[in-house]
Amino acid sequence: MDERAALKLLAGKLPDAGDDAAVVDGLVITTDMLHETTDFPTGTERYTAGWRAVGASLSDVAAMGAKAVAAVAVYADAGFDRDELEAFVAGASDVCESVDARYVGGDLDTFAEFTATTTALGRTDDPVLRSGARPGDVLCVTGTLGRSGAALRLFEDGETERANDLFRFEPRVAAGRALAPYATAMMDSSDGLARSVHQLSEASDCGFSLDSDAVPVAESVREVAENEDDERALSLFFGEDFELVLTLPEDHVSAARKASPTPIFVVGTVTDSGVTMDGEPLPDRGYTHG
Amino acid sequence: MDERAALKLLAGKLPDAGDDAAVVDGLVITTDMLHETTDFPTGTERYTAGWRAVGASLSDVAAMGAKAVAAVAVYADAGFDRDELEAFVAGASDVCESVDARYVGGDLDTFAEFTATTTALGRTDDPVLRSGARPGDVLCVTGTLGRSGAALRLFEDGETERANDLFRFEPRVAAGRALAPYATAMMDSSDGLARSVHQLSEASDCGFSLDSDAVPVAESVREVAENEDDERALSLFFGEDFELVLTLPEDHVSAARKASPTPIFVVGTVTDSGVTMDGEPLPDRGYTHG
Predict the structure, then answer these.
(1) Which residue numbers in chain A have pLDDT < 70?
(2) For residue range B244-273, what is the model confidence (pLDDT) as tens digits?
(3) Positive or negative, the Cα torsion across A161, A167, A171, A175?
(4) Domain end: B123, B155, B185, which one?
(5) Are residues A153 and A24 located together in one domain of the fold?
(6) Which residue of B27, B47, B82, B104 is the best one to mutate when testing the A interface, meaning the one whose CB has the most A CBs within 10 A?
(7) pLDDT tens, position by position, B216-239
(8) Is residue B249 domain-resident?
(9) What whole-number distance in Å separates Cα of residue B84 and Cα of residue B58?
(10) A287 contacts chain B (CB < 8 A)
């Protein structure tokens, strides 16, 4: 069984799971594991790793439209270097502070490969699920896409300072809170826009029609992309951008735009079935998390 | 820096951490990572692994005197076998149910070694910390000690059914809740009684005087121990029993005993300084978590 099949099996067994975060008793909780070989390219500073690992979990809280309360992490490594550990904790603390949450520690573990498991906790009485999109709604994203894909190119090119900077994204907690009253469905774009839209399609039993010209591409992507196809690959399929992907009634777009501290862009509409871009099928392809 | 030194460094940086669970905003949260090679002996069923991994985090919630709300886990393995995954989830769900909490899923991760990171969440407005023990209080433990040490011997001897049975402990959430109004300090015995008492001594800036005859030894330890020294090693130093270790005023013992659904045993008294058993120094030795 591959990871996606296994996740599907779990979703059937655990009705509280299967969204960006599990909902229980007015709280949302979400957990992720990241590894050096699969998630932190050579050149990733430990401060960036702490920021990004905890930020990924905070992004799931944001995707539920919840207030972020706290985060914890297990920091596992073959040995504990004081500077590295302090940098990780500083990054984890700073990303929490950026969304008014508290980093309250966690645990250490001796392990062959640097690995971080992060858990974030939020509060909401009215979580926004993936399942509420309705035909006629519009599809929006916050911010711009492709930033993490661009960072990876820069890591490969040895431009580590710029790459680290791009790798430290701002979890969209404030935007998620502001957009929650308008959104019919919401998730984060951690698997890329294309796969996210397919996931919304499945959860809401609807289709989507996207317009490629409307997709907001990060400036950094334009700098590193070799051509238009490459730009498209980085902004649609690479993922790991941790922007919000949401649906809402068209007549709420103006109010939602005013409420959100992060710009939102209309990139398509909700249809009855099928996921297309510019009239062609949009492949269900994206970042498969290691 | 070894793991204990690194934990000390973190405790200084993160004042909310350092107890069995972090306390934030009426909630307690705790996270742990367990690995096949260090935490699950050959013969450990996946159902037992799910029960035990999630149970270890629920035990930390119990040690704060909190109500258990929910738990999540990241299940990482080289591949996903349907039966193994379902068994893990069943064990995780059952241990949650045993303490009136909900297992709400988590995430999957492809990784070389079977690894589970569990996080548990609880609620309390009045957490019991490790720091409140006062000279004159008595020292108590719930249940009996040495069960996990005995299980390990049985795993080594190939008696896996019995060993799995002993490995699935009951997190002391109900006892923790019942004892919280009486306890001045509390923690769980995951590192063994000896090390736990040293940790309480440091957190509360006090000493302890223990009486070896009063230490409740699990029946299973008597079955597997080679001699008295061995019995002592298994019940005092091995750890991983997940019983509660607590202090309370002597005149509350009778009421606490009536309130607790799990038997409690008085094993010593709180003194000004030094940790002794039968008048001799008790080594700060125990299970060092891998």
Answers:
(1) 287-290
(2) 999 999 999 999 999 999 999 999 999 999
(3) positive
(4) B123
(5) no
(6) B104
(7) 999 999 999 999 999 999 999 998
(8) yes
(9) 22
(10) no
Looking at residue B287, its pLDDT comes to: 67
Residues B72 and B156 grouped into a single domain: no
Mean pLDDT value of segment B142-150: 96
Q: Which of A2, A10, A89 sits opposite B105 (nearest CB)?
A: A10
Q: What is the pLDDT of residues B7-28, one digit of tens each?
A: 888 877 887 777 899 999 999 9
Residues on chain B touching A104 (C-beta within 8 angstroms): 14, 16-17, 22-24, 29
Give A-chain residues touching B108 at CB under 8 angstroms.
Answer: 3, 6-7, 10
Instruction: Establish whether A115 is an annotated binding residue.
Output: no
Domain boundary among B65, B99, B123: B123
Report the candidate in A31, A74, A57, A59 with the shortest Cα–Cα distance to residue B103: A31
A29 and B121 in contact by Cβ < 8 A? yes
The proportion of chain B whose per-residue pLDDT surpasses 70, expressed as a percent, equals 99
- Residue window 71-130, chain B: list those with CB within 8 Å of chain A: 72-74, 76, 79-82, 85-86, 89, 93, 102-111, 115, 117, 119, 121
Residues B149 and B271 in one domain: yes
Distance CA A227, CA A210 (A): 21
Residues of B in contact with A81 (CB under 8 A): 1
Residues of B in contact with A7 (CB under 8 A): 108
Q: Do residues A63 and A157 both lie within one domain? A: no
Provide the number of CB pairs (under 8 Å) joining chain A to chain B.
171
